[in-house]
Each structure stands twice: as structure tokens, then as C-alpha cells.
Structure prediction request, 271 residues.
Amino acid sequence: MRKIVLVTGASAGIGKQTAMYLAQNGYTVYGAARRMEKMQDLIPYGIKPVELDITKGESVEACVDQIVQEAGRIDILINNAGFGLEGAIEDVPIKDARYQLEVNVFGAMHLTQLILPTMRENKYGKIVNISSVGGKVAFPLGGWYHASKFAMEALSDSLRNEVREFGIDVIVVEPGATRSEWGTIATESLLTVSGHTAYQGLATKTHTLFTQLSNNIQEPIEIAKLIKTGIESSRPKTRYAAKEMNSRILLFLRAIVSDKLLDKLIMRQLA
Ligand SMILES: NC(=O)c1ccc[n+]([C@@H]2O[C@H](COP(=O)([O-])OP(=O)(O)OC[C@H]3O[C@@H](n4cnc5c(N)ncnc54)[C@H](OP(=O)(O)O)[C@@H]3O)[C@@H](O)[C@H]2O)c1
Prediction:
């Protein structure tokens, strides 16, 4: 029986690539996002676009209702929708910080809450939470984004042990710098929020780092493949991290060096 998958954030980047890759590999895929016009090219792959603003309760409910009515269930949820708000913690208006968490954390968890009952009933489910290498290592001027991804890591750890007895796996995927709309949106906020404040110097250095990273970027298909490996494993790993070198080095350093040494290494990379 074909598995029913919901991929959020399917109008761009990692989500769009994942939706296409899973559809090509025998899954029935629903792709959700706000920009329906950006999902029309998914239709020839057999993917069904659904309008979703993950910050709006009624939109999240309508999305789940539509899929359950049409397909009878959702077997696999890929919580991918998200964006990166950059800027010094002091500079980011608190309403914008809240919105970052609304999209990246509360939206994903609301969707998860609404889908869990059908997964429990079917005694089967896979929930993939797209975190980031930035869910393990926090750079200056990315505080609110990192907070959202650290939160996803913690929520995934709690959820994994809550739902295991119902036959549901929770899998974290941690991309590093990946080709998508993420970089443009993050850079825009970085320069708008902190490009002209006391943190201008750090903003310029961070901007340079983003530019360097964009020259050495991973393709979204690599993340789509990690997701497929996770959902097809009968005993999935708790985490699948990006395989490209920058991400591996960062995660390795995070695991072995002290906070103070990591601070020095991060600031040296920015310098
Ligand atoms: N690219 C990277 O370097 C990187 C690295 C680590 C982690 N990640 C994570 O990977 C995930 C996917 O990002 P990406 O790189 O593919 O970025 P992207 O190209 O900007 O795609 C983001 C997706 O999220 C959707 N989205 C944003 N706000 C939404 C909302 N309110 N409701 C519903 N959908 C919303 C967007 O769709 P609409 O605008 O059409 O709604 C879009 O489809 C994110 O969680 C991101 O944090 C990315």
C-alpha cells in the first residue's frame, strides 16, 4: 500500500525537492505551503498541492482535514516549512522573534498534534522534523533562528519517547548550508535588522560568511535522500546530519570541544 506523505514547505528548496523525490519513489505526496502558484510544477509528479499557512490554526486544521478526507490517513509527516530570521537578539523586534518561533516551532507542533491521533489509531507513523546543524551550534546574530531549531531538537527527543509505543518514529534531519530560498531571506533580515546598528560589524562579517557558504553549498536532493533513508529504515537513527564537510566539522567540534573554545573558533571563522 502506498504511504501517504505530507511535506510542508513544498513550494521551494528542500521541501519541493523532497516532495518530488518521494513522489518519484512510490509515495503519495501532499505538498503544503502558502504560495500555491509555486507548487503547480509539482502536479505532473502526481503531488497534490494544499494551501497552508502554518501560523494560522484554521489553515493547519483545514490542511489535515482535507488530506484525511481524501486519503484516509497521513502516514508520514515531514515538518520542513521554516525560515531563518537573522539579526542581533537586541535588535530583532520581539514580535518578529515570536513569528520565527510560530513558523518554525509552534506551527510544526500544531500540525503534529493534529496528525498524531490518526497515526496512533493506525499504529504506524513517521514524523521527520527538519532541524539544522544550527540546532546544535549557535552563531551570533542567528539567536532566534537557533532557538527555534534547538527547540525542534528538544521537542523531537521528548516526542520520540512519547509515541514509540504507538509504532511512531520521530526522526530529526539536520541540513547544513543547502541551495534554497533560505539564504536570500536570512541575508535580507540580517542586513535590515542589524546592518545599521551597534552590531553592524558582526552583521558585515556574518554576511561575508553567508557568501562563502553559498559558494560551497549542498543541493537539496542530498537532504531529500537523507529523509528517504530515515523513513524507510525499520529502526531509524534519531538524527541524520548533513554529510557535507562544513557541517561535519561543526558537529564534530560541538561534540568534543568546550563552549569557550567553540566560541573562539566561531569568532575566528567570522573574522
Ligand atoms: N537551506 C539551508 O541552508 C538550511 C539549512 C539548515 C536547515 N534548513 C531548514 O530546512 C527547512 C526548509 O528550508 P529551505 O532551505 O528549503 O528554505 P526555502 O527554500 O526558503 O523554503 C521554505 C519553505 O517554507 C515555507 N514556509 C515558510 N513560511 C511558511 C508558513 N508560514 N506557512 C507554510 N509554509 C511556510 C515556504 O513556503 P511559502 O513561502 O510558499 O509558504 C517554503 O516552501 C527549513 O526548516 C530550514 O530552516 C535549511
Notes: The mean pLDDT is 97. The radius of gyration is 18 Å.
